Amino acid sequence: MRWEAQEQAEQVAGLFGVTGLVRSVRTPEFAGMTFHEVLAKSALNRIPKNSAMPFDWTINPYRGCSHACVYCFARSTHRYLDLDTGADFDQQVIVKVNTPEVLAAEVAKRTWSHGLVALGTNTDAYQRAEGRYSLMPGIITALAEHATPFSILTKGTLLRRDLPLLARAKEDVHVELSMSIAVHDDDLQQSLEPGTPTTAARLATVRAAADLGFRVSVFIMPVMPKLTDSREHLDSALRAIRDAGASRVAYGALHLRPGAREWFFAWLERERPELLPRYRRMYSRSAYASKEYRTWLKARIDPLIDAYGLRGSADDDYRATKWKRTEAVGELANPQGALF
């Protein structure tokens, strides 16, 4: 086994073309997954100064994501590692094992700006790998101890493990928590997001955070035409979100960048072939849903949001509203980023 691990590490190091790889790990409790442990040179990724993003920095301790959401916009980032945007993105996860230590050193510098730091802009910091590596407690502690405000966007219920720590951090710095819950139909959710916690478990996490005094936002992103945009689906979703104690909702129509587009279309062909022609037409010229569809969606969902007291951001382009920018940015602006 040791020889096999060493041989794989050498192969992956050659694949990535870097010297930061420590080892590649497979364990029975994560069947089908390979974790490539690397040493990061930097934990913080700077957002360009001319960007309209509502944060200044991002941290992504993982690359690739076991949530395996077929629509994930970050899939294309795996191409920069010579890995594919489909199964490799779901199963070959890069773990920046020294992120807490590197971050602590960066935010301790006298020159540190204390700008808002966002987690969850590319891949989920509370995906299943976090249960093995426990990088987030060190990240949270480093940010809080150095007066750095931060936000977390996740689909992971492992967030509950860190809620006491986050509550303590909130006493000293601004902390924003957001939960992404795009699908409120159990069978559809497991088909579209096979590696994610259930919708009920995520709603319970929202409740746990709200009970600790957090004003939790819920992202209904993406809304998918003819899959999750019916009035019944949206009404049921918003009612459940309100009952879970969330403070606000943000929503956005599905966008399909290269990498995600091919993987999502393959899912449609397998699971909902009757919708494939419609999607091909809608996304034939752009990664974004048509203006007409976004206008229609706004007219459908906004009255429901108001009725449930969950005023969120309207879907008027991912680059034009605070909450959609949070989902769409991250290392995608510089896909190679500060990986190692």
TrEMBL record:
Keywords: Iron, Iron-sulfur, Metal-binding
A Pfam family the protein falls into: Radical_SAM
Domain Radical SAM core, residue spans: 51-292
Organism superkingdom: Bacteria
PANTHER family, per database record: SLR0285 PROTEIN (PTHR43432)
UniProt-recorded name of the protein: Rv2578c family radical SAM protein
Annotated organism of origin: Brevibacterium ammoniilyticum
